[in-house]
Amino acid sequence: MKSLSFYIHNLYQNQQWLDFILYLGLGLILTLSLMSVVALVLVYAERKIAAHFQCRLGPMRVGWHGTLQTVADALKLLLKEDLIPKAADRFLFALAPFLTVMAALLSLSVLPFSLSATLSNMNIGLLFLSAISGYGVLGILIGGWASNNKWSLLGAMRAGAQLISYELSMTLSLLSIVVLSGSLNLNEIIASQAQGWWIWRAHLVGFISFVIYIISSTAETNRTPFDMAEGESELTAGFHTEYSGMRFAFFFLSEYVNLFIVSAIGSILFLGGWMPLHIGEWESFNALMDFVPGPIWFLLKTGALIFLSMWFRWTFPRLRVDQLMRFEWKFLLPLGLINLFLSSIIALGGFYFFP
Amino acid sequence: MNQESNMSANSKTDQSASALAQVPIENAKRWPDLNYFNKIIYGASSLAKGMKITFGYLINTKTVVTQQYPENRETLILADRVRANLIMKHNENGYHDCTSCHICEGVCPNASIHVVDRSEPTVSKKELGYFVWRLDSCTFCNLCVMACPFSCLEMTGQFESSTYDQSLLVYNLNQYSGATQNNLAKLADDQARTSAIKAISPYEGPVALEGYHLAGIPKEFLPQKSDAKTSQAREGVNP
Questions:
Q1: Which residues 33-92 on chain B approach chain A with CB closer than 8 angstroms?
Q2: Short-list A136, A218, A205, CA closest to A172
Q3: How many other C-beta atoms can be found within 10 angstroms of the C-beta atom of residue B239?
Q4: Closest Cα partner for A105 from A128, A73, A75?
Q5: By CA distance, what is A309's nearest residue in B?
Q6: What interface predicted TM-score (ipTM) does this complex get?
Q7: Which CATH fold topology does B86-235 show?
Q8: How do residues A115-164 score in pLDDT, each as one tens digit?
């Protein structure tokens, strides 16, 4: 099937401007609606799962078992008064939520949901994703600064420091998969896992980089054990203390979309993305698995990683700021470097299973 | 109790130190003395243990403790320690044990209890007229229940007491003005007992609305103009 990005590539030669604009508009609408649906579903899932982890029931009143609760919350946030503090920097204060949402939107546009359902099939997709995920914290930093509030500023600075630290080991763990698969294109990385997923195919190296990725992506999305940026117990609400109404909703939305994105990247790199589960020589089993369409596999794997992230959040105790930094610089980063070295050896020698 | 233990602390120092030494060290939960790599394994395994526990909570719906209150009003389970509306206990014939001794009134820290003696007692020398309890100023500290020498007060689990009018939060807890059940038992028959007491409703008598007179405020601080009901209540009406 002809790739969608190939379509864009030929636009200039064929002079199909109307089609190009239509394509852009459709892509934007699809991505935006995907974003809001993902956020709504994830907020509901998080509240329900968190409740049952804590022996509670969670939302039960709005709709069947509270299924419409997040819709009601979103409506409430839309209608709420939008306050801007008197001493805040008005322009930056208004800009910050949009930057954060835009980062999430840009990341969603390169995710391959199946072989053909990719909005933009870049050949440097993974590089683009890691660049954009670094850009997302800019909104948090600007928002914290523009609020003119000490809590917000402290939260924003913590978020910045945390991102700079954990981006390193996250990129190292991504690099070891790039070394093994030999490509930065997300679809090609998935195609390289046709024989088996990288998490178990590369002699423990893949598993270690998966663990590093999970830890650093939790830190990247500012979720509890690593929620230094919000720090409810010490910083009220961290960088979004002064935000209310729709601007707060944007921060909230991008938080959950980011959770979806990091889990999607994890499933693409380590669990084979839209690739169905194949077990060695079992021909009939593999044929059965091939019947399940690619997007379903992708969403299943992403959902499993999201559940893992929620499980972490509601089980683990929080870290202190100094413990957070020590963990990254003294443990995760050296481990990531050694892991990258080992993965290079495995890739050069072709030692991985099913070469 | 505390003073005693403090006074005897000096003489018992040696004994308690030796008693501490006898506590087996295995029972004390502490971070084990491990090297770097074993610490990592220990930490990871303890995290895994925590995840196992929370996953057990997730899949086992029996662990849910949430009670969905308005829906399950009929089957609501409250703990024994719940303290809500105060009641005066009445036996199966509707007689109470209160001798109007005013101890509960004295111990109440925020003057929520006001006991009015019956002005013309019929059976014994002193009889309870009205037992006025102000829910709106009560902190449910349970002191009155503990102080009552005849155990005739009780904190129930009945917590649905919201009203649209604050004056409805002041009740008479006793169902009749009159003597205790023991003294009434000395009377000849039910006929005599019924004539010796006077049934009252929860909102009858000196049920205060403003509450100045209940709070123990001296008379000179009270407002000069007072309606008939308040002044009547201040004097104590004849039940």
A1: 47, 50-51, 53-55, 57-58, 61, 63-66, 68
A2: A205
A3: 24
A4: A128
A5: B51
A6: 0.76
A7: Alpha-Beta Plaits (3.30.70)
A8: 777 777 788 888 888 888 878 888 888 988 888 888 888 888 888 888 88
